[in-house]
Amino acid sequence: MDHSSSLEKILRSVAITLVLVFFLFPIAWIFLMSLQTNETILSIPPSLAFTPIIDNYTALITGQLRTAAGSLQLNFMQNMFNSVLLSVCSVALSLVLGVPAAYAFARFKFRLGEDIAFTLLSFRFAPALLVLLPLSLYFKTLGLTNTYIGLIWVYQLICLPLILWIVRGYFEDISPDIEHAYRIAGNSWWRTFTRISIPLAKPGIAAAGLLAFIFAWNNFVFALILASADKQPVTVGALAFVTASGIQYGQIAAAIIISITPTLALALYAQRYLVEGLSMGAVKG
Amino acid sequence: MSQLAIKSLTKSYGAFKVFDGLNLQADAGEIVVIFGGSGTGKTILLRLIAGVEEPTGGAIEIGGHDVSDIAPEHRGVGMAFQNFALFPHMNASENIATPLRAAGADESKVKAGVAKVAKLLKIDHVLNHAPRELSNGQKQRTALARALAAEPQILLLDDPLRNVDAKLRFEMRLELPRLLRQSGATVLYVTQDYKEAMALADRIAVLANGTFVQTASPEDIYMRPATLGVARLFGDPAINTADTMIETEGGAHVVLGGTRVPVAESYRGFAGREVILGVRPEAVELGSAGVEAEVIAVTPLNERTVLLLQNPNGWEFLASLPSSAASIPEAGTKVRASFAAAGTHIFDRQTGERLHG
Asked: Comparing A133-137, A275-279, B284-288, which segment has the lowest mean pLDDT?
């Protein structure tokens, strides 16, 4: 049944359009910029009439940045690779560590449990730079500076608390009786965890994983301080576009478009798991 | 040898004692109803037996073996939860198949097992449905089917009819005893509906204040309640009570509202004892002799009619008469009430325990 009048429908579509324009405008603008030369971008007044070029993209992919002052080496694709590697591994490690931990915090009451959980959360509100100073000294001693392992380890500061706290809530929402029922039916604790608890918390795990991925992907300061050029992600690599002969807006725009693609793809893919309601109707309604 | 034995079982949460020494034996194939009000720990008892919670003290024996160190999956019990606890990501058939699969049955046996129990519980037409697509009644049957599927020696049913509608509850109350007998399992059935308890049980164990105050056949529980508390739990409308004293001058009697009500001579030994007289509303007989009373209200309830009566001294009590009785007095009528011995019980006022005359 549809109770809304046609006026309501029109107003609703107008509102949706406004919201979409508001949020998508910067991305659309950047996309247009990525197809222009620095000159057309900087021309005043800006014009929508331009001949699209793909030079910015080819420059990024081949690694040859041509500027007014000459040709520059770029390792954008290496940065891309680093970003993917760092984010994927960090989130994977965080899931492996965080999901069982979240389950433990959700199901079992143990000494200092709440304190430990809160301490882990507090990593999120400690200023990163404050942590980094002592950390960089430790990393030097341990030989972890400029290694993927070292970075993935530090990225746990970003990913682990997120996953822990989001997934914990989802585990808490699962009726313990469902788990009890599965165990009484003859299944071990581990089987119950993998066959019941994890599948039922899947929307939460997907959401937390996606968020953690985005935060890891967008991180700048950890890699800036703890890694040098060959291990740095795109966020730090973007600094290379600030050249002696000016800022390469076209390439930056193209780099942005390329670098949001993996996150966007992941978000679209994870969307189906974000759908809730799986656990509805399991217990009395 | 009893199939299930609970010995001096205790359970505390911090300083709060839920059970203080529970004892219960159940034979193979016996249906024992655990009856008690809300918060008496009926569900906790089932969880302890299933092994998903650990007792503070005492022992639980299944088939003669102490199961303290046995994990829930190896205890050989089936359990149906009050909130059904179906696995939401599996359809009804997979839900029911769970215990069979866990036992390592091959695919054909699983199929046959599910089909058998589904047919028994009349849910074979909804086996492909996800739990959220089932009605409450179907959910309840699915949960029951899952508990029955692997033919456990011990079946724990936690108020399975609590969340189903009245019609289905009535049907199931008739069907369940046959179903449960067929399964051959020792059944512990939790409920707080006394009619359900009476309809299903071989024996009823009444749980109150952390112990079983009485464990007996339904008939005994009703006709010979061990305490005033038990008497109050069984029966609708609830038993009438009056504070009085046993007197022996000119035959054992109590005085109710200024009228002598004779009691069995065997109560002579309790002369002078302060007691509570309990009279089942069904045991109240209206006639030309007995306690004076005025009819205050008349409530017809299908096959019985409940009368609220008041004695000139202020004592109010209920009488439940068959609606087919020759004459049901109207409100305002003055009547005299006498009490049939079978429905009249005498309890000690201090302890609440039944005095055996």
From this structure: A275-279
| Contact assignment for A184 to B131 by CB distance below 8 Å | no
Domain ranges of chain B: 4-232, 238-348
**Which chain B residues are Cβ-neighbours of A187 within 8 angstroms?**
73, 98, 102
Residues for chain A: how many in total? 285
The dotted CATH code for B238-348 is 2.40.50.140
Start-to-end Cα distance in chain B: 34
Q: Which residue ranges make up each domain of chain A?
A: 6-73, 76-274
Q: Has residue A48 got a pLDDT over 70?
A: yes
Does B83 contact A182 at a Cβ distance shorter than 8 Å? no
Identify the CATH class of B4-232: alpha beta
Q: Which of A131, A139, A102 is nearest to A219 (CA)?
A: A131
In the CATH hierarchy, which fold is given to the domain comprising A76-274? MetI-like fold (1.10.3720)
Residues B95-141 have pLDDT tens digits of 999 999 999 989 999 999 999 999 988 899 999 999 999 998 899 99
Task: Give the ipTM.
Answer: 0.85
Residue of A nearest to B151 (CA): A185
Chain A hits for B73, Cβ within 8 Å: 183-188
Q: Assess contact for A202 and B68: CB atoms under 8 A.
A: no
Q: Report the Cα A30 to chain-centroid distance in Å.
A: 20
B4-232 against B238-348: fold identical = no
A281 contacts B88? CB cut-off 8 A: yes
Q: State the pLDDT confidence band at A123, using cuts at 50, 70 and 90.
A: confident
Query: B234-237 contacts: CB < 8 A, separation 24 or more?
Result: B234/B194, B234/B197, B234/B198, B235/B194, B235/B280, B235/B281, B236/B194, B236/B195, B237/B281, B237/B306, B237/B318, B237/B320
Q: How far is it, in rounded angstroms, from Cα A236 to Cα A231? A: 10
Tell me which DSSP letter residue A252 carries. Answer: H
SS3 B231: helix
* Residue position matching structure tokens 């909804």: B126
Q: Which residues of B touch A188 (CB under 8 A)?
A: 71, 73
